[in-house]
Design brief:
disordered C terminus; mainly alpha
Length: 439
Amino acid sequence: MKFKMTPLEKKWVWYDVGNSAFTLLVSTLLPIFFNTIAESNGVSDTDYLAWWAYATSISTAIVAVLGPTLGTLSDLRGARKKIFSASILVGALGCAVLGFVQHWIWFLVLFVLAKSAYQLSLVVYDSMLCDVTEKERMDEVSSRGYAWGYIGSCIPFLLTIVVYVLYEMLGLIPLMAAMVLVFLIVAVWWIACSVPLWKSYRQDHFVEPGGHPVKTGLKNLGGVFRELWHKKQILFFLLAFFFFIDGVYTIIDMAIAYGTSLGLDTVSLVIALLVTQVVAFPSAILLGMLSRKVKPQNLIITCIVAYFFITVYAVFLDQEYEFWILAVCVGLFQGTIQAMSRSYYAKIIPREKAGEYFGVYDIFGKGAAFMGTLLVGGVTDIFDNQSIGVGALAVMFVIGLALFIVTVRCKPAAEVQAAPAEEALPAEGAAQEQTEKAE
C-alpha cells in the first residue's frame, strides 16, 4: 500500500531538507575551510583534527546543557514555535557570518555558536513529530524526513561545490569570497525551508504554564528525570542511544576532517560525502517502508551491527577508493538508524511532554557526540595516530547494542506503574486534559 503524507507532514519534512544543508556543510566544506585557515596560522594536521574535535565537543556540551531546559519550556502553551524560530535565526545568522572570519580561533567560536543553535532547533523539531502525525505513521514519516533531507540538501551543496571549484581548482575567486558565498547559500536555504512548517505548525499537545515559565519548565524537567526511574524501557533506550548514536554522530562530524588529516584529496572526499547523501535517500525510504513488516527494533539492531563493522573498516583506511566504500556503507544505514531511533522514542514517551522528553533525548544523543568527538581528539593526541582515534569508537557500538537488547525486553512504559502521586506535577494534569480536548 502506497504511503501518502499529509500537507503538514510534508512541511515538517521540509525542515529536514533545510537543516540538512547545514549538516552537510559541517561534514564537508566547513572543515576544509578551517584546515586552510589553520594551516595559514601554522597549525599542524594533527592539531587541526584535535581542535576541530574539541570545538565540536564544546558545541554538543552546550546543547546537552541547554537542550533539556529549552525542550521543557517548549512544552508550555505557545512556546514551541517561538523557541524553534529563535534557534533557526541564531543558527542561520551564525552560519552566514562565518564566511567573513579569517582567524582560526574566531572561526571556531562562530562555528560553535551556529552548530549549537542548529542542534537546539532539532530538539524542538523532533518533538513536533508528536503533533504533526499519528503514532502508527511515525516510523515512515521520520524516515521520509531524513531521506528527503539527505537528497534535498544536495541542491545547495552542489551550488557550494561550484563555488569551491571556482576557488580551489580554477582560482577565479579568492578564499574570502568563496567562504562568503558558501555560507550565505546554506543560511538562506536553511531559513527558506523552515518557513512552510513555521507558518502551518500548531502545538496540539502542551502543558499549561503554572507561575513563572522558567521555574515551571525546570520543575517539569525534574519530574521527567524522576519518571525515567520508573519507566525502564525509556531509560534503557536512552542509555543505549547514548552509546550507539555516539559513533554515528562522530562519524558524520569527523569524516572529512579524518580523510583530510590522512592526506586524501579534498575534492574526492567531498564528492564521496555527496554519494553518501544520494545513497541515504532511497535507503532511508526503503527501510522505512520495511518497518511495516519488520519490527523497528530489529532494524535498529541491524544498523548498530553494521556501524560497528564500518568503524573497524575505517581504522585501516588509507586510500581514496576505500573512503568511497566507507561513504556508501555509511549512506546505507545512516538515515535509518537516526529515523528509527527518533520514531521509536516518540512512540514510547508521553505526547503532551514531548519537548521535555526530547530535551532529555538530546542529552543522551548530542551528549554522546560530545564524548565521541572528545574520544577521537584525545586518543589521537595521546597516540599521535588518527586511525587509532577513530577505531576507539567501535566499543561504543558494542555497549549500545547490549543496552538496546535490554530495552527491547523491558515492558512498555504504559504498562509500568506510574511514578508516585506525590511526584506528579500540577501542570501534568492540565496537559492531559488539554490533550483529551485536542484529540
